[in-house]
Amino acid sequence: MTDIDQYLRLHGERFEAELCDLLRIASVSAQPECRAEILRAADWLDARFRRLGFRSEIVATEGCPLVVAESPHVEGAPTALVYGHYDVQPADPLDRWTSPPFEPTRRGGNLYARGATDDKGQMLTHLLSAEAWVECRGALPLNLKYVIEGEEEVGSRSLETYLAGQADRLATDCIVISDGAQFAPGIPAICYGLRGIAYYELRVAGPNRDLHSGSFGGSVTNPAGALAKVLAGMTDNQGRVTIPGFYDDVAPLSDQERRLLAELPFDETEYLLQLGVTGTWGEEGYTLLERRWARPAYDVCGLWSGYQGEGAKTILPATAHAKFSFRLVPNQDPHKITQGIKWLLTELCPPGIELELVDLHGSPGLLVSLESPYVDAAARAIEQAFGRRPVLTREGGSIPIVATLHETLRADVLLLGWGQNDDNTPAPDEKLSLADFHRGIRASARLWQELAHVP
Amino acid sequence: MTDIDQYLRLHGERFEAELCDLLRIASVSAQPECRAEILRAADWLDARFRRLGFRSEIVATEGCPLVVAESPHVEGAPTALVYGHYDVQPADPLDRWTSPPFEPTRRGGNLYARGATDDKGQMLTHLLSAEAWVECRGALPLNLKYVIEGEEEVGSRSLETYLAGQADRLATDCIVISDGAQFAPGIPAICYGLRGIAYYELRVAGPNRDLHSGSFGGSVTNPAGALAKVLAGMTDNQGRVTIPGFYDDVAPLSDQERRLLAELPFDETEYLLQLGVTGTWGEEGYTLLERRWARPAYDVCGLWSGYQGEGAKTILPATAHAKFSFRLVPNQDPHKITQGIKWLLTELCPPGIELELVDLHGSPGLLVSLESPYVDAAARAIEQAFGRRPVLTREGGSIPIVATLHETLRADVLLLGWGQNDDNTPAPDEKLSLADFHRGIRASARLWQELAHVP
After folding, report:
1. Do A15 and A155 share a domain, yes or no?
2. Are residues A202 and A103 in the same domain?
3. Which of A192, A408, B106, B287 has its CA 20 to 30 A from that of B267?
4. Is A375 helix (H, G, I), strand (E, B) or coil?
5. Do A218 and B325 touch (CB under 8 A)?
């Protein structure tokens, strides 16, 4: 691999410049006003694949387009499919960014921009590693397919629809995804489990206008107070979700797995210190890592109602809103969870207000077998590039489409995160370490080699 | 009173124009950027009192200035002190106003503007009625003092400070305040009880940045979820406040008073219909009117945290905020309530977050004796102007300074609301019926006559 390593060193700066180009495109899928930037990002990728000599296509959808590309066919070689996404999270609050979110800026060995780690920087490693093979060896040692979508941050609906008819075209031996974090700086990881998600908006409507809280307070139900009651009622005082049947399908942690998690070099005190909190709280009976990776979690993601300005406004607000989510674990079914929430809402809703639940998106979790030969191949590739064998972990986040990819293509999934846990996604000052970016490209180049030799 | 009635008719249009002038001044006390408008409103009133031949003074304070005026002395006659305020509530949300909040607009017999009823329109009736006496009779039949403040909507702190040293200068036989509503259209009222208030902002701080709810959810306390728990924990499922000792000092309703309240021509169905709600909810064991006027109430006035935009953002927010208030009844002490809340917060606060309680303002409630001869005098004046005897009511709102005025000046308080319950204060489209405005001026002119003859 000397030739390839040398190529990667020689072109490292240009790779960074290319990433910066892509990061300058504000492809926020949640915000309709970013539509033109979404299209620009897809065009950028499509052109990039073509420059590599790959077949590439922009697939129009009802939402954001997909970019689907394929390397020149290598007869008799296995196939890997790379999944990634070019859309990013909203950048607000803008005033808390040190440098503007869509002007990539290098500081202290990191590249700061919205999308740097999630997922433009990580996704690009698998394209640039292919370039090295093509330029150094004239061809890849295996067949590569790429599916890069633009709706990962809003539920991957268009890709879900697309996949239904493309099982043959996208047929693959394994699926490669880099959209996560290493275990810690210097400790790479292969992630064998993802949580799912069920994300909702709750709208509470009370009186037909904002009322004076003095003249009317106590006589009618306060929508903001009712919202607090409903949100609070979704967990008990032991941190357990109160939705009926919520835990029925939860795949329990095996003793072996609890032991593996406990053996990871995880410093809870350091973790809390880094987050700036003085204590931890969650479902009783589980360790912090278990709660974070392998147990369901309930989070209120947004709240708004009534007066948010300075000083006092004596108001009984007409409406109140929340966004909240449940992180799900295998084998919870988001649709069943939605039914349970609806039942709970009718239980918790006081008279005089109306609740509307909007199901924004949902996807199940995933577990990959630790016996998979592709996991072994990836571990070897990472060990060569990072200088140490990766640990095996699970991940609390969701890549909503991964379970569908797995089910549709019946292929093992390799979750190879090149980022770090403090990369600030989806907060202000999102970043990617440039060292990780280049190590990721090196590991990816070796991965193609290792996967080509899986029996 | 024929001469005075004729004068009021003749000058009615000009009175409306003068009110519009004052309403065009955006004197929002809660918003520091409105400082210049606050000063303009005070200047306007000061100049207006001088044009009437009254002594008038703008009293500078640490906050918004007071306007203190006095009619030429009438030897041997009693004194009435008029209290009012020239500051108004914030006008947001601006996009829900039919016409701009600070461009007074006539529609269907009403004048629409922020401050139309609360309190510029009502307060002005007591100035314009005095003009009629001065112009028709050359003098008032009693001594009038006016204290018009600019911080009623934010807690009246400057006036509280000022009053401490002015008991002699402001000495009076009774206090006249019009800053409320009639019982219903065509049914004027004298209000003999006000609720107090204790208003707070609660700030919840969790991790040092917004976190990804997938990677971190379940491992650290969610500030927005914690806020919901804390706010929900302030009442039980029977609508009773859970702060220890909260009800200890509550003056209970007498059987006679409950009977009087029950006899009022109040149509609960119509009330709920007008507010656009299908049901009512509050403290168990009390009627809607009792809950609204004579029992404490808890209201969440504002909420904000995390993502409030379109679609889904998978965030564990760093902070969460609420504004909330308790409406208090005699003899609850706001300071004692604050202590109780602080105790409850330490009980309800989960590990890993920090709570900060900001006491924005507080004032006790008030009850006036129904035996007061001034109440009788006011009832006669109102009967003449409105064509029917007023009902006796209590009011759920607070005029925070009223209890202090009562205590400092040791004078009976006459709460004579000229507005209506659907005047939309403090919501968009605040209004005052022009018929009520003119009836208020007529009743005020007669009030000076009746008060002059109280033995």
Report:
1. yes
2. no
3. B106
4. helix
5. no
Measured between its terminal Cα atoms, the distance across chain B in Å is: 21
CATH code for position B408: 3.40.630.10
Q: Determine, yes or no, domain membership for A283.
A: no
Are both A412 and A373 inside the same structural domain? yes
Return d(Cα A453, Cα A142) in angstroms, integer.
9
Q: Are residues A351 and A238 in the same domain?
A: yes
Q: Is B434 helix (H, G, I), strand (E, B) or coil?
A: helix
DSSP 8-state assignment for residue A411: -
Q: Which CATH number does the domain housing residue B351 bear?
A: 3.30.70.360
**C-alpha–C-alpha distance, residues A438 and A13, integer Å:** 10
Report CB contact under 8 Å: A297, B361.
Answer: no
DSSP B381-413: HHHHHHSSPPEEEEESS--TTHHHHHHHH--EE
The domain boundary residue, chosen from B336, B363, B390: B363
What interface predicted TM-score (ipTM) does this complex get?
0.78
Strands B143-149 and B79-85: parallel
Q: Which residues contact B209 (CB under 8 A, 6 or more apart)?
A: A275, A276, A424, A427, A428, A429, B318
The count of structural domains within chain B is 2
Does B330 fall in a domain? Answer: yes
Does residue A432 have a pLDDT over 80? yes
What range does the domain containing B345 cover?
196-250+296-363
Q: Judge if A49 and A128 occupy the same domain.
A: yes
- Residue B209 touches partner A, C-beta closer than 8 Å: yes
Q: Does the beta carbon of A277 lie under 8 angstroms from any beta carbon of chain B?
A: yes
Q: Does B182 touch chain A (CB under 8 A)?
A: no
For A380, B175, B181, B368, the CA distances from B403, given in Å and listed in that order, are 78, 11, 19, 10
Distance, CA of A427 to CA of A419 (rounded, Å) = 15
**Among B176, B377, B380, B195, which Cα is nearest to B292's?**
B195
Residue where a domain terminates, one of B333, B363, B393: B363
- Cβ pairs bridging A and B (under 8 Å): 385
Residue B348 touches partner A, C-beta closer than 8 Å: no
Q: Please answer whether residues B248 and B340 qualify as being in contact, where contact means their C-beta atoms are separated by less than 8 angstroms.
A: no
User: Which of A139, A119, A118, A117 is closest to A130 using CA atoms?
Assistant: A139
Whole-model pTM: value is 0.77
Chain A nearest CA to B129, separation (Å): 27
Relative to beta strand B189-194, strand B366-367 is antiparallel
Query: Is-contact A175 A409, C-beta < 8 A?
Result: yes
Say whether both B203 and B310 belong to one domain: yes
Tokens of B319: 């902070």
d(CA B79, CA B145) in angstroms, rounded, equals 7
- The pLDDT score that the predictor gives to residue B241 is 97
Q: In this structure, are B116 and B35 located in the same domain?
A: yes
Here the tokens at position B215 are 């990677």
Average the pLDDT over B107-136 and give the result: 97
Q: Distance, in angstroms, between B280 CA and closest chain A CA? A: 5
Whether the CB of A352 is below 8 Å from some CB of chain B: the reply is: yes
Q: Is the peptide bond before A93 cis (omega within 30 degrees of 0)?
A: yes
A320 and A174 both lie in a single domain: no
| Domain assignment present for A358 | yes
Residue B269 lies in a domain: no
d(CA A75, CA B108): 82
Taking only the tens place, the pLDDT of each residue in A47-89 is 999 999 999 999 999 999 999 999 999 999 999 999 999 999 9
Query: Rounded to an integer, what distance in angstroms lies between the CA atom of residue A359 and that of residue B98?
Result: 33
Strand locations in B9-54 (E): none
